[in-house]
Amino acid sequence: MKILIAYDGSALADEAIEDLDLAGMPEGTEALVVSAAKPWSFMIEAGGLGAVGWNPITVSDIQSFDGNSLREAEVLSHRARNHLESKHPDWIVRAESCLDQPAAGILRKAEAWKPDLIVMGSHGRTALARMLMGSVAHKVLHHAACAVRINRARIRPAKRPPRLLVGVGGGAGEEHLIEDLAAREWPGGTQVHLLAVLETLVMPPDAASEDLQQRLNRFAAGRHEAILGKLEGYRDRISKKGIEAFPEVTEGDPRHMLLEKAAEWDADCLFLGSRNLNGLERILLGSVSDSIAVHAPCTVEVFRDRPAKSK
Question: What number of other Cβ atoms are within 10 A of residue 228's Cβ?
Fold first, then answer.
């Protein structure tokens, strides 16, 4: 498995690395730590420093600033690499730094290296944090072609096996998600809760005939049974790894029900499948995965559908 770890030296980034102990990474995982240094030249081009009438900063100064920033990023990435190597001696770990805007640098490296997963820290769930998330983690979540893991710092029982909540909603990345879960190396006692939240069917009052209501009820029951059968299939695939998995189908708003279940069950990570978004969808930002990534009380992994392989 290939994972790209976005690292900026903050406590949040350190927590995201520690949280990988709960991610089921297999032996031989290949990890690339990337630290992006924001270039001073970008600030000049954007008018951040050129807006003043008199600017004493020369091109040579900016080149010197950029060089210092890049060296600092290199130190950070190597520090994280050394820590990962000490924690996971069976992994293959490399470190790189780049001079780029953080989100753009991460996405460019991901496009070139093609990881299975991008790992990032999150600012939390306050109003300010939700705005800050848009600067880096939010952009990466919406534009990355692979799965994205956004860590949420929390206090949990130290030696408890992982509790994984999987939201099943028919997203294109769902098969990829189940396949990946089954392929990882989970410790004994790991539990997986497969939860499908179906939208409640409400008949318009002026169309509420008894016959139509009965047909609607049969449709709802058939839908429930079909989804439960799908979850049981997922359970069987995951259980082959010795993991305790149990399915549940309920009704309501997925954004609310998944968050409530994650908090109630004290989940360590909430997994979601998500289709690739087009430009308009990225602007509208109303998806279940987007809402949950911002508000979740635990770490979130969002999976994209794998691109079709060329023959």
Answer: 15
Say if residue 310 is exposed, middle or buried (CB neighbours under 10 Å; 0-12, 13-18, 19+): exposed
Helix 59-87 with 11-18: angle, nearest 10 deg: 30
Q: Are strands 147-151 and 117-121 parallel, antiparallel or unpaired?
A: parallel
Q: What is the 3-class SS of 38-66, one letter each residue?
A: CCHHHHHHCCCCCCCCCCCCCHHHHHHHH
Structure tokens at 188: 């004994």
* Two tokens, residue 190: 């790991």
Q: 150-193, pLDDT tens digit by residue?
A: 998 777 887 899 999 999 876 666 888 899 999 999 998 999 99
Going by pLDDT thresholds of 50, 70 and 90, the confidence category of residue 282 is: very low
31 near 93, Cβ under 8 Å? Answer: yes
What's the predicted TM-score (pTM) here?
0.84
Q: Are 220 and 201 in contact (CB under 8 A)?
A: yes
The residue type of 190 is: T
Answer for the pair 142, 269: CB distance below 8 angstroms, yes or no: no
Residues 280-295, mean pLDDT to the nearest whole number: 62
Contact 148, 173 (CB under 8 A): no
Average model confidence (pLDDT) across the chain: 83
Please report which confidence band the pLDDT of residue 235 belongs to, taking 50, 70 and 90 as the band edges: very high
